[in-house]
Amino acid sequence: MKRCLFVDDSSVIRKVAKRILNSPEMVVVEAATGAEGLDMCAYDMPDIIVVDGALEDMGTTDFIRRVRALDGRVKPQIAICLTEVDIGAIMRAKRAGAQGYLLKPFTRPQLLDRFRAFDIAA
């Protein structure tokens, strides 16, 4: 079973994602802050991480670099979640170790399509 971590300060975004993605093949866990997300990754690294492009407690690229620096057998797929296309933010996230992005608010098909792309790349 795959594990997905959704790191976003919006409880609505986290809950919508959880409703869409939770299935017998995937469990979704939530973190409201970057620090909480890092603690969860250190304890049990998820297969996929979706992180808000505007974390309140740390920079998104800092979060991604810190996840990549953690030791472990799992190297997660990481996507940033943005409210608008920001090429600079996307490129900084990719240089830090992210594989892609998605826009919010997202629809069920958009989110599922992004996750199918992760499955192919994994």
TrEMBL record:
InterPro entries xrefs: Bact_response_regulator, CheY-like_superfamily, Sig_transdc_resp-reg_receiver
Gene Ontology biological process terms, A to Z: phosphorelay signal transduction system
Gene3D superfamilies xrefs: 3.40.50.2300
Record SMART domains: REC (SM00448)
Keywords (A to Z) from UniProt: Phosphoprotein, Transcription, Transcription regulation
Record-listed 4-aspartylphosphate modification sites: D52
Domain Response regulatory: 3-119
Domain of life: Bacteria
Name of the protein in its database record: Response regulator
Source species taxonomy: Bacteria, Pseudomonadati, Pseudomonadota, Alphaproteobacteria, Hyphomicrobiales
